[in-house]
Design brief:
It contains five helices and two strands; from the N terminus they run ααββααα. The protein has about 120 residues and is mainly α. It has a two-stranded antiparallel sheet with strand order 1-2.
């Protein structure tokens, strides 16, 4: 069966998404909001012009190109994951950073709470 020039949204959903056709309405709204070149529903004909829909998806997937036409690029991930080099062996007996900061400060009340440091 060939696709009509102005198929219903249900026909487009089946053709584009197969078994996941129920997701089509949200996907179509997303594309309409994000890309002005996404084919709109022709009110007189009651559907989207199928060749334009197919060409739009072909262009988005790099199969066809239209000069000077914008393409949607996926957004940059908000969380970047990096791999860090090891910075040395952990020393769990070392003083806590907050204790070191208190020793450096001139606040006597903080000093009195810390154990006295004795030199031999």
């Amino acid at each position: 069966m060939t696709m009509p020039l102005y198929p219903s949204e249900a026909q487009i959903a089946r053709e584009v998404m197969g078994d996941r056709h129920k997701d089509w309405p949200s996907k179509a709204r997303f594309y309409e909001a994000k890309d002005p070149t996404f084919p709109k529903i022709n009110q007189l004909m009651g559907g989207r012009y199928w060749p334009a829909v197919k060409l739009w998806f072909d262009r988005q997937n790099g199969v066809a190109t239209i000069p000077d036409a914008p393409t949607i690029t996926p957004p940059e991930p908000r969380v970047r994951i990096g791999i860090f080099e090891p910075d040395g062996k952990e020393n769990f007996d070392a003083a806590d950073a907050s204790q070191i900061d208190r020793r450096r400060s001139g606040n006597r009340s903080d000093r009195q709470r810390l154990p006295a440091h004795r030199t031999p």
